[in-house]
Task: structure prediction
Amino acid sequence: MTPKSEFLEARGLRPDGRRSLRFHYRDWGGTGDPLVLLHGLASNARIWDLTAPFLTGGFRVVALDQRGHGLSDKPDGGYDFASVSGDLAAFVQALGLERPALAGHSWGANVALQFAADRPDGVSALALVDGGFLEISAFEGMTWERTVETMSPPPLAGMKLDTFLQGARNWPGLGEFWSDDVQEIVLANFRIDDDKTIHPHLSRDNHLKILRSLWEQKPSALWSRIRCPTLLLPTARDQPDPRNAVWMEHKRKGIALAEQRALSLKVVWMNDTIHDVPLQRPQELAGAIRSFLESLA
Result:
């Protein structure tokens, strides 16, 4: 199923209030209750291209390019969670979506969580895909300076397309199931110039602003404000890298806190799965989201 590529303008969202922002989204149509899909940091709406077609039988499915990403506008500011979740509220209102379910991947899960905490009557359910439960500043020794050092984006701007693709096809995990479809989705994260150099749609400066907001966000303080049923879909994969053990420890701690504090929570582990679940296991992911949402009807 080929989605429609659409644009809309939402007013009053720039920090300076001077003009509207233009947002790009992908619309698969479908019948039933609305479901909004949110991508992660430095990604774009197309990461849902393989998953969304398995959801349209029972839901009206749309995926948003969040500010700074994909084909949406890229202002210099407004990358805090209040602004980005405000973008989502304006998007939902512009499309006339009444109490949609939100499915967010990675940072998109944190956006969905913030939206539901700030607007508990505005969302029917949450599905948080390997995100929304980690509290980066709670990691031992994870100062802001350390966060920048370990989590800054790689210097891809100006890299030749062939060089990038050669490396991308060998990325741990993702390279194992690389395909033409996956390549097309990954390349949607970039502008490709006539000389075949790539430039990330999300600038480094804006990337770091989002990273700062992630470092400052406290998901543990948000769970008690969530009133809707929530599905957590964390990933797990055996890896020799000791950093993986640290991340898994904090995943389990974050999920345990969510289980203690959330009103209605279900956890489904995606085992032997990399972070980019919508690319590796789209049908399985869609099935888990669909089963959860249908169980609430």
Notes: The first helix runs from residue 81 to 95. The chain has two domains: 4-153+203-295, 154-201.
